[in-house]
Amino acid sequence: MLDNDFSKRNNNKNMISYFFRRVVLFILALVAVLGWTIAHADIPKKAGTSSNNEQVKLVHQSALTIDSHIDWPIRQVLNPGFDPSVGYKTGLVASGQWDLVRMENGGLDAAFMSIFTPQRQLNDRGYAQAKDLANRMIQRTEQFLLDQPNRIAIALSPADAERLEKVGKRAIFLGMENGYPLGTDIKAVQAFYDQGIRYITLTHSKNNQLGDSSTDKQQQWQGLSPFGEAVVQEMNRLGIMVDVSHVHDDTFWDVIRLSKAPIIASHSNARKVRDVPRNMDDNMLRAIKAKGGVVQLCLLGDYIKAIPKNPERTAALAQLANQQAAWFQGKLNQAEVNDLLKKLQAINDQYPELKPTIADAINHLDHMVSVMGIDHVGIGSDFDGGGGLRNLEDVSQMPNITQELLNRGYTPEEIRKIWGGNLMRVFERALEVAKQMQET
Ligand SMILES: [Zn+2]
How many domains, the chain? Predict the structure, then answer.
């Protein structure tokens, strides 16, 4: 080869044709690249390349961005000294993961605030206490919205969220996590609807009076209870979305059979990628799709990837277990809460929690899209309820999701569906079903 090259360079004629060929090849390559660029001008970068900040910003701003699950209301009850109109620093324990300033900075247009009640006894006393707690959380959330009328407001329908986005205000929807506060009175469903609740996660981590949970020790109802069936029908009639995150597979299939409206999983992932009962298998994903529903990607580490625990961190946290339990039971005053948060911060500083990344989370989304298609997925962070990833610590970092989606080749149109378009379509359909049921 070397000899051949050498003889070529010694021959003038050959050299001219050699350079001529090179120039022609170069021009052909240039035309091909330009042609491809023009043809793909509106398509973002392909997998493996990174998108630029300006593109991320444009796409993020063009979407109605909605997070379907934030647990701020219970956090506010447990830490009343927290002022959500202030912008707290990202990454600190005392900051939580949501406040209005960080929501604005993160370009998050709307969020479903979860009215979550921890479960105690399934009896009248337990139900009454849970109902009281749920009412307090709703009132505090609504009071905060009334205090900031120029920046944020309640939304009761997709149209509300769109209207608020147009005038540059944030929208807050209310969802209820755990049907426990409904007690055993079917009229409670309408009472919570009247207070603004637009989805109900039927169970939390234990079986309740509505049905079985995916994470309790044993089943109690083999799916929905008779009261749970009545609640699903009443939710359909009112236009409250049925949320199957946390429920047992049997409960899930009962809901699939019973619900007249498409259903949601407000914060759930794919069992194929991380095999835990809290996630959904491919048949469940397909059933959600067949019903026209949506599964909202949950950003809680343990549902995304198995990550080994740091034993020193676990031991340090164990020492605060009693204090934490007292906090969750509402038994600490503000000074004691502040003290506990400081101790938790010291543990975090010394032994940072090991968390998955956004890329790990989006692997779940990719899988769900491969099973269900692009029209049945969304985002439900579980911030302030255990959510949070290495490069997604709070709502101010939401554009990092858009960046990862662009990097993987999702188009702006697909990203708008993921960020809220799909969820609002399901909500709209639930309202139509309610209208039809009320007319007949
Ligand atoms: Zn949850």
Answer: 1
